[in-house]
Amino acid sequence: MVKTNAVEPQEINKVPLLAVLIAGAFIAVLNQTLLATALPPIMDDLEIDATTAQWLTTGFMLVNGVMIPVTAFLIERFSTRSLFLTAMGLFAVGTVICAIAPGFPVLLTGRIVQAAGAGIMMPLIMTVFFVIFPIEKRGQAMGLFGLVISFAPAIGPTLSGWVVQHYPWRSLFYIIIPIALLNLVAAYYLLKNVTEQSYPKLDVLSVILSTLGFGGILYGFSSAGDFGWGSWPVLTSIGVGTVTLIWFIRRQLQLKQPLLEFKVFQYRVFTLATIIGIIVFVAMISGATILPIYMQQMHNFTPLASGLMLLPGAIVMGLSNPITGRIFDKGGGKWLLIGGMSLVTITTFMFSDLSTETSFTYLAVVNAFRMLGVAMVMMPATTAGLNQLPARLIPHGTALNNTMRQVSGSIGTALLVTIMASAALNPDVYGAEGAVRGVNVTFMAVGVASAIGIIVALLLPNPKGNKSMPQAAADRETSHGHAEAD
Q: Which domains can be identified in the chain, with CATH numbers?
């Protein structure tokens, strides 16, 4: 490891540093959700159809997903300060491009530039959190991080809907521009270099394989709803993505300085925690995706009502994250994850018996308890997994953690919508109740997956052993030159 001018964690004034990082994360996550309700006005203004407009969200997701695996290399190659300033700078430039875009191509370009910055930002912020906080305080720190990234999606669609109802859609980007620039200035003066650099060599072929692999899979699954599962664009994209991804993984295992270190999966707790994180993330997006469709298309609720139904759950999740973080720090993650997965499983099965008469109150209350379960699992699982890694592997762990969620979110959304459509009965014969059957079967499938998550959580070690292993791993790495598998 090559030493740099990184500041020792104990010498850092964490308050301004955290303020800059959390503000950056909030802006990045908020930006992803702002266009949800703004697409119709954009379509009317730019005279484009829904398929074309959808690329403003799909393109952002693709570039974001492709950038995340590269961040492990970037974190090891560049200083904390320069990398964050670059990421926020790209995000700000992209936002300006979107605001002044005369047409769709320029607007899409702006979204791509935004996504490049956001894709770097999130893993970098998580890595910094794990560097500056000792292991006994990481749960609380990640809980605070979870509070921010939970509230941003909660207010994004509502804010976007209000803005586009009263002002032109470009106002959404004009609102973000000064916030991004203010964060950029604050980062310039307040951010410290806390990560150490090893200056790895860039393997260009790995970057190409990573882009084609993750990008192909993300595009294939995200476009399945538009083109159909049997269409050549979907099959070709998923096929090329899968083959290329396998090639990419094999190459990383052979390189001395891999772009992305897949050997983190040799740490058993990291692997188990990642699996749990994927399951609970898919469970979370199932509610956010399926429930609004059910409420608006099968239950005659307004879009505003469906948004208000999800709002209590988002607030509960946001407020619960710091609390679950403290519980994690005091007692370890095993029983917290078991309890959270149990709550997610029970409430998911409660959504598998919906009808056209199910009340708004029932939906809102059950979803709120469901999001409490998600809060008990999401950040604690991430923290428990990353706590097992020695310092040199944390950038790779955060990159893989974010990548797995991005990919699972794309695949999960596509599969859930497919299950819902295929399980629905003919509406001409069975009416709206026939369509609701598809929703119930979808939540039944998610409930089974959540139950598997409980079993995986039971395989985790006891809390005391869980807390002692990271230091042991670090000691082994120091004495042997590399970390041994758990």
A: 14-191 (1.20.1250.20), 203-256 (no CATH), 260-486 (1.20.1250.20)
